[in-house]
Give the backbone structure.
Amino acid sequence: MPRHNEAVDLSWDCPRAVAHHLHEVRGVSTSGSSQETALIPQSMSFAYLPLVAFGLRLRSSCACSCGALVVLVLGWPTSRPLVLDFSYAFWNVWSPLACGSKEKRAAKTTSQSSCSCLRHLNGEVWAVGRASDTEVLKLPVTKIALGVGRNKTTVYKALEESFKIEKRGRPDLLTKQEVNLLVRTIKAMVKKAQGCYEVTLAMVRKRAKVKASERCIREALQKRKFKFRVLRSKPRLTTADVRDRMAFATKYCTKTRAWWRKNVHLFIDLKNFSVYPNAESRTIAAQREVRGAYRQPSQGLDEAYVVAPKGLKYNTGAKAVKIAGGVGMGRVRLWHDVGQKWNASVAAELYSGPVRDALRRACPSKSSFLMLEDNDPTGFKSKLGEKAKAAAKIKVLAIPKRSPDLSVMDYAIWKKVTRTMRAQEKRFPKKKKETRAEFIARLRRTAQNLPKTFIDKAIGNMKERCERLLAAKGHHFEEGGKSKFV
């Protein structure tokens, strides 16, 4: 057993072994029922506490009972080191660490009261005893990192809350002010281009007059979330269009979802549906609905990752069908094949026939009706069409020009019908063929079987769209989130 004033090396990985050796240093037997032995109960599990005491040079003295004997223990997963004074009860400090948060806070308070200071100096840790500043224990950070299996930076972070990693390597070629200049330059150049030509990094670099390379500029812009992205497909709005959209949003943004469902009796629009009678044409139709696939860069030209361009015209072997569709009061109220031509006379026949009959069936107690439609000059806004609507006592809630994002049929119904048709065709046998009449009949059944909840949600979403349009001041607005249906 070491004598007083004799240096002792401790290199144990278990706090029980440290405490046991300290008892021997202080001349106390660890056997029997002494008070020091009871400080660490036999039932305490140190496997839960990955705490390490190591590399310490302890000097025992006759002043141990006065609190001069101090040991520095770095606790993991705790992020702060503990300086424990063994003049206090060892169990009172260690036991709460295996318990709840309140006990952890109590342990932190106990550990702070048991030492006078803890400071970082020249890459080493110093723990100063409460009783005397002459009893100093010195432990290099390198040994701490080696003992706990962490790097020195992690140890420094645990010991000092204010520790910051200094940036290494050569300085950035682009300062913060230059990056801000590049961002302003890109925005101004893209706005001036109006989608008529591409704005490249070489053009931006030349305009901003920076000395960095295009690669350096690209990386700096990516940190600001500026990347070269495909332009989104939207109708080009004129100044008059923006003004009309703003007026529409201002007028109807206060209308509730219930108002749109109850007071607008029919939302009408026209669409051309291609007819796909065989397996080959159905394959082309299915590929046009696929957005993409997960792949490696080298797989871009494999057959499984190549689809026909959506804008490419394809002869399916059957004529397309032009459908006049309308929803209202939770159901598809209108589904009519208008034929191959669409003009003023066809529009007048549509209003005086199928549209009027659908409205009367939906609202038999109404003498006049309110219908939302777009500004189609060929049929909806023709003189014959206006006369037919007046004769049928149909009032029109017209949306602004080039505003498919305000048409329920455009942003919800047509997409839902198309995707449901493709899902049905996926289960068809490869040899199955459909005639044009069978395809049109299946298209009608698909539309009429749309869920009422879906239609009501789509109509009620006009409220959110008017609010977003008002916030965008008449310009394009994001249609995702709550406005996304299909």
In short: The chain has a mean pLDDT of 75.
